[in-house]
Design a protein that fits this description.
Length: about 575
Amino acid sequence: MDKLDSQRPAARALQTVRNLLLAVALYTVLTAVLQFFFYGSLTSTHPPRPTNQHSSSSSTDSPSGSKSSNGYAHLRPDSLVVANDAYMGTRPHVDTYANFTRLVEVCRGSITSLERMKYVYDCMQYLIERKDDYYYIPTENAPSIGYPSYVPSSVNDIGTCNGPIIPYHIWWSGKCTWRVELFIKSYFHSQNLPCSRLNLWLDVDVNPNAVDEMMRDPGFVRFLPLVKRGDIKLREWKFPARVLLRQANDGEGNGKIIKLGDGAYIDEMGNEWLEFSTRKMTFLPVAVSDAVRFVVLHYEGGVYCDMDNVLLRDLRPLLVPPNHGFAERWGWYEGPWDYNTAIMSLHPNSSLSQHFLKGAVKMGINFHPYIIGRLVYKDGRGEEFTMFEDGFFDPIWGQFNTPGVTRCTVPCLENYGQAFLGRKNAIPKDWKAYDGPKFEEIDGGVSGNDAGRNSDGAKNTGRSAYEEDWSDKRRRRRRGGAEENDNNLQPRAPAGFAPGYDIDKDPYPPNNRTLENFFRGAYAYHIHNQWAKHPEPNSWLDMVRKTHDGFLNGNRVNMYGEKWNGPQLVSYDPFPEFN
Ligand SMILES: *[C@@H]1O[C@H](CO)[C@@H](O)[C@H](O)[C@H]1NC(C)=O
Ligand SMILES: *[C@@H]1O[C@H](CO)[C@@H](O)[C@H](O)[C@H]1NC(C)=O
Ligand SMILES: *[C@@H]1O[C@H](CO)[C@@H](O)[C@H](O)[C@H]1NC(C)=O
């Protein structure tokens, strides 16, 4: 190309486009390479690019190709066992603090040797059995001092918290898929509702009408009563041009702007700001969502959760202690800087939250956990930002990269895809680590509300309408059990199932999976993306959905033995491909 040619406007435009494309390509390659080297995988742990939220799940994850249930979908029972729904005991008191020092000591060991880091099973056993050892109620300055008394929520009223209300933050861009529904329902299933608020941040840089569209989204419409009740707030996320670091007191400021360097300055009124020159920043959704959590937590505190989590326990005891900044470890990476921020918490307006923001600006508005983690560590502030081990929020992450090193978790999943599998024997080691009593399998199985009972003992308070039904089931023969000689058996279809149903031919037969054994002790399970995948019937994730539905239609209790007393929620939509 000669000089004259390259100076023509068209050619210059072309050149600009080419440079831009090159830059994008370079960025993509670099990110992938970095990701691969640092984390050993190309799968990010972050929310999706909007483009893949709508793609259909045409992937061939089933060996036989077909996903259909061969006509058994409407005949099969939901489960072979009656779940013990209230397996967590009573909900922690509103003032309960988790002892971070103790939790780190037990589940990690020392910071240099990490003696306990890989003992995820033991960590979770501790979390479930030793609440008395790591939970406590402060004797002085309890957070609830001065608050009104507790009023539980009801159909139209969110209730009253007898302590500070904790904000929860999630971010999304795109339609309300079943995965958004899964997170939100897991929140309602597990958290202390009068004492929590769920902020759903919608990216209005990508779609200026995101809030309106969400309010009309068929997937979200079911939650409108809870928007009305005040549980869910739809918030507009716009990438800010600057962030307020410190608000001036009256009379501060000398009418001039004072530059402090690295993007920070004090304005005429004395407020301290941090400038985000967004020119420097890539607007990939992953990068945006990385930034959202730090900005939002700096302003409002509480907890940020990536949408690809399922909450399994009340997070409050981790969120109310005075210095509760935390995130997770990246699998079994050993660096004290190897944070993952899929679930993280910061004290608002704190020196730590400011430090993160300033650091990210220095690094060119880069909030990637790898960058941020190195930063806090290098600046000697790692101690202030607790790193929780895999057993808290992501139990399987380390174990399947190095299988067999320590005892597996229950269930023993060897990759993130297995939580979606419902075919018989699809998960070879599913129960490998379990050594508790076997569940009684009910002949003919159980469905709907009968699939859960209120508490461990024989009592079934609250399900009296089903009492008779229940004892009927008990009287029937157990599958393969010892009560073969029961003469009171009612005549019934073979093996007690509905006429026409053959459990051996059903591709997704009912089984004994219950939420009680889905990473019990962990606060959350991290699905890690897989946005387009649908859980097969009777997979672990399908069981989670059914458990949510049973609770949210008011019939089953949650893990704390509580009944849902909010508006009745529409159940999850079935996935037609599994019919
Ligand atoms: C928290 O745990 C640490 C370490 O085990 C212990 O020394 C401390 O006394 C505990 N704090 C409370 C308030 O129980
Ligand atoms: C943080 O500071 C801002 C401005 O200084 C203030 O509006 C906000 O209420 C503070 N947030 C919290 C949770 O204290
Ligand atoms: C659940 O079923 C599997 C497969 O039949 C079995 O290996 C496992 O022990 C059962 N678990 C319980 C708790 O009964």
